[in-house]
Design a protein that fits this description.
Number of strands: 0
Number of helices: 2
Mean pLDDT: 87
Order of helices and strands: HH
Radius of gyration: 14 Å
Low-confidence stretches: none
Helix content: 25-40%
Shape: elongated
Largest sheet: none
Strand content: under 5%
Structural class: mainly alpha
């Protein structure tokens, strides 16, 4: 999962941001933002996430005809 590609209702995205901030405050210097993001996604948010080729294109591949919601640059 890529923390650079996040979408959804504002309330949910803000909740995630707050959870990431809280984790950093409670565990300083423990993990990178990608680590914290993936930890939260696979634990607290596991029933609310959606990912795959219909959500984002392949990393560093300029797909002109993709139907994904986001283009990953």
């Amino acid at each position: 999962l890529n923390c650079g590609v996040v979408g959804g209702p504002r309330v949910l995205v803000m909740e995630l941001c707050r959870d990431m901030w809280d984790y950093y405050v409670q565990h300083p210097n423990e993990q990178t933002e990608m680590g914290v993001f993936n930890y939260l996604m696979h634990t607290k948010y596991k029933d609310r996430i959606e990912y795959g080729r219909h959500v984002t294109t392949e990393f560093k591949k300029f797909e002109r005809s993709s139907t994904a919601w986001f283009r990953h640059k």
